[in-house]
Write a structure and sequence with these properties.
Layout lengths: L1 E2 L2 H15 L10 E9 L10 E4 L6 E6 L11 E10 L9 E9 L5 E6 L4 E6 L3 E5 L2 E5 L8 E7 L1 E2 L5 E2 L10 E5 L2 E8 L4 E6 L7 E8 L6 H12 L3 E2 L35 E3 L10 E7 L4 E6 L1
Parallel strand pairs: 1-2, 4-6
Antiparallel strand pairs: 2-3, 2-5, 3-4, 5-6, 7-8, 8-18, 9-10, 10-11, 11-17, 12-13, 14-15, 15-16, 16-17, 19-21, 20-21
Amino acid sequence: MKRIPVLVLLLGVLFLTACEKAEIPLPQGVQVVRGYLQPVPFSLKRRGTHALYTGSGGTMIVYAESTGVNLRLLEGQDVELEGVFEKNSEVGALPVLVVGKILAGSDEQMRPWAIPALGLSVNLPKSWKGSIKGGSATFTASGFTMPVLTITARKTARAASGQPVYGPLPVSSPGELLVVGLRKALADVDAASEAWVVRVAPSPSGTSETIFTFALQSASPVASQVLLYRNILKTVEFKAATMSAASSATSSIPQSGSSASATSGSRAGGEGSVCGGVAGILCPKGLFCKITDAVSESGVCTKR
């Protein structure tokens, strides 16, 4: 693999293509690019779900996309990505780095936790210690005098229409609307308890909302802490809740298997299947997500 002065090269490609209408050959083979990863607006003309920059607020280096790596989990971080360059579908746009591997990304490795009593799984930093008791899960981390994360479920009333009705929030209303595990959620900072509270709506047939309470450290910027917590929420997957002896154990219950990584994420079935959307569904290898609906940010898997 090659580490090249990518910024200089790609800016030169953009300049020459726009000004001289000249097509400069892209570097061949596997390349390594380092930069600050951010999502970019969906486009019906251009490829790329993300872009690498020289830093936060810096110059764009290259667009990026992947069929095997969930780039959403690395948003807002300095990363080092390995992949191959491909020409963008929009004339004059920067090339696309098709990412195959993450060489450096999140500050800490993650591991999956299964919480059967709450019917969900989530990826959390390896250094966090967890305890599951009945219908709640608590996680602690060094530097925090209180649990860094508590996950609980609470019964909620149902309106005549069958939709969930939220009770009074311990936070300012209406809060921020999110999508967590394909479900609608409401998030806001609770200044009184110094926490970021996220309430996730029940499933269509459920009656309990799931509440994620993340602790905030006064010594650190709230925005940077919430960014980490947002990335954690992107790994949440809801499953059919099952009450069993294992679900009510009082000890830490990490999900068995290898450590979690940014390669986790839902996958589309094949060519012509739906991709993208709020779930960030990835296409199989050899296909890319061609956006057909800019509003829902979804599309269909298409051959390159």
